[in-house]
Design goal:
- The structure is a single chain.
- By secondary structure, this protein is mainly alpha-helical.
- The chain has six helices and no strands.
- The chain has a single domain, classed as Plant lipid-transfer and hydrophobic proteins (Hydrophobic Seed Protein, Orthogonal Bundle), CATH 1.10.110.
- Helix 1 packs across helix 5.
- This is a 2S seed storage protein.
- This is Allergen Sin a 1.
Amino acid sequence: PAGPFRIPKCRKEFQQAQHLRACQQWLHKQAMQSGSGPSWTLDDEFDFEDDMENPQGPQQRPPLLQQCCNELHQEEPLCVCPTLKGASKAVKQQVRQQLGQQGQQGPHLQHVISRIYQTATHLPKVCNIRQVSVCPFKKTMPGPS
């Protein structure tokens, strides 16, 4: 089957990592709070180098993000993007249900979904995973799926 898990080993890692539970919560939280506070997603949001030298500085990661980074560091580099893609997909389904119940479909839903993928794309870089910087998800609006 196609989809994010063309590499069987990664599917197994995804299940062992409990589907990156902390990352899913983080993606969900980021996508839903549109436009409030630092988003931790965009390239110029903060300087990663300073972050490395000064771990206790003002850029300290929220605990949930730290948990998510720990989950990603346990993955093999090869599997980081496929497992993140799996997590993004799971969050997309949650959000679709949630907004569907509130009757908020359409443009708002598309906006939230694109935020999920945008956040996921940059997670390896935010988490300082050496071998992976940005996952090549399509940033464009996802079509019907």
